[in-house]
Amino acid sequence: MKSIFITQDIWEIIEDGYEKPKDADEEASWDDTKKSQYKQNKRRDHYALSIIYRSVDETILPTIMAATTAKEAWSILETKYRGSKKPESKKLIISRDVIFDEGAQWQWNENNSEVPVASIPTTSPDQGEGPNDLIYTCTSSRMIEEFKKSMMSEYEMTDLGEMKYFLGMQVKQSPGRIFLSQEKYAEDMLKKFNMRDCKPMATPMATNEKLSKNDGKEKVDASFYRSLVGSLIYLTNTRPDIVHAVSIISRFMSEPSKAHLAAAKRILRYIKGTKSHGIMYKSVIDYKLTGYTDSDWAGSIDDRRSTSGYVFQLGSKSVSWSSKKQATVALSSAEAEYISATSAACEAVWLRRILKDLQQDTEGPTTIYCDNMSAIVMTKNPVFHSRTKHIEIRHHFIRELVEKQEIELQFCKTGEKLADIFTKALLTDKFLHFRRELGVQVFQD
User: Fold this and answer.
1) Which of 57, 294, 337, 437 could join 372 via S-S bond, C-beta 3.0 to 4.6 A?
2) Which residues form the Reverse transcriptase Ty1/copia-type domain (predicted)?
3) 67: helix, strand or coil
4) Cα 350–Cα 353–Cα 354 angle in degrees, nearest 5
5) How far is CA 170 from CA 270, 349, 443, in A?
6) What are the boundaries of each domain within the chain?
7) CATH topology assigned to domain 286-412
8) 226 vs 256: CA distance, rounded Å
9) What are phi and psi of 25, to 5 degrees?
10) Is 325 exposed, middle or buried (0-12, 13-18, 19+ CB in 10 A)?
11) Global pTM?
12) H/E element holding 73?
């Protein structure tokens, strides 16, 4: 647990505590710098204390509830449990949100070479309980066995073998291939929303339909609609082909109409005919990271905001994707593409760091393909000052990445741009073509 505190940069506050004023008069006498430091340390201490509370089981929690600081709570735990023999049964308790926010990594040493083993709790059980499942992976099968033995000697756990099912996600593995799908989840969703016998559709969204908040149609049960959309959002974990359609219908959560519900049910009809589809990942020699970005200028009828879309592929298979309405109104198609490219560039930075953590450093800049030459020029040279001076500063982050040679934008023709499927409804032939390019398919032995 100490390692988690260190990664969160709060171990010092737990070990040493922090200076607090005796009363309000003393605090008032402090200068602004000291007051600011006190407030910052106080926030860090509250955060550390909350992690400790969430990381112990219900039998231990009462012993530290009276503690007012993280240092005090940690001292109680140290005094009570340091040096004691291991109980006959212990449960692994890990703060789930810390793992997901910051990631966790064990570093083993074998012949002076660090081998990372990643673990992720996969469920959120009742308070006080630990995670039900744990995923771990390693570059060495022998190291995996050592890790399992080490964990099982310390905690009450069972080895379930090779991963086959994970939070509604089905995993099929064969030499050099991993197939991810949510077929059972899709079947359960169709049953839940009474769509098991619906007629399948070839695409998730009609090309001639523009949804609006004020469409004049009769309103429907918002709770039912939100439940449906939420279920579809989770399905996008393995179905990038429905991401844009789901993004569109998620804009009408507060007061959905019959038109919005019909659009959501059309996605279910598409899922009905493709529920066995998923993503196939194959072992390849070239793990080059490549991105595609696109925008649909002023596509929203309600506020004329554009939609940003991007997808990144490692080798030839998709690993990250997004379709999201932009936060501001773009005054031109070039500006919309520029904003979308910046969003994609931020994702590229994150993916490059993940690859580095996995000891797969990327050589040279990551290429992102875009079909707007003006947007590409704007990332390299801010010559169009009169056209760009109004753009929010954060969107110019991409210029820094291009200058540092972390990102490189290249032109591609609109018909070849994979990101089109994330910004607009497409005709059937084009949609099926891009779906294949994304790697969405049926598992084949």
Assistant:
1) 337
2) 132-206
3) coil
4) 90
5) 20, 29, 11
6) 2-81, 96-161, 181-274, 286-412
7) Nucleotidyltransferase; domain 5 (3.30.420)
8) 9
9) -65, -40
10) middle
11) 0.71
12) helix 70-81
Q: For the stretch 106-131, what's the b/e string if a residue is b when 16 or more beta carbons lie within 10 angstroms of its beta carbon?
A: bebeeeeeebebebbbbeeeeeeebb
Q: Cα separations (Å) of 185 from 118, 155, 188, 211, 281?
A: 25, 31, 5, 27, 20
Distance CA 417, CA 430 (A): 11
Inform me whether the pLDDT recorded for 365 exceeds 90. yes
Query: Which residues have a Cβ under 8 Å from the Cβ of 339 and sit 6 or more positions away?
Result: 295, 306, 308, 326, 328, 330, 391, 395
Query: In 87-132, which ranges are continuous DSSP H helix?
Result: 96-102
Lookup result for tokens 């390849």: 284
Mean pLDDT is lowest, of 9-13, 187-191, 290-294, for 9-13
Is the sign of the CA dihedral 257, 262, 265, 267 positive or negative?
Answer: negative
* 43 CB-side CA count, 13 A: 7
Contact 51, 98 (CB under 8 A): yes
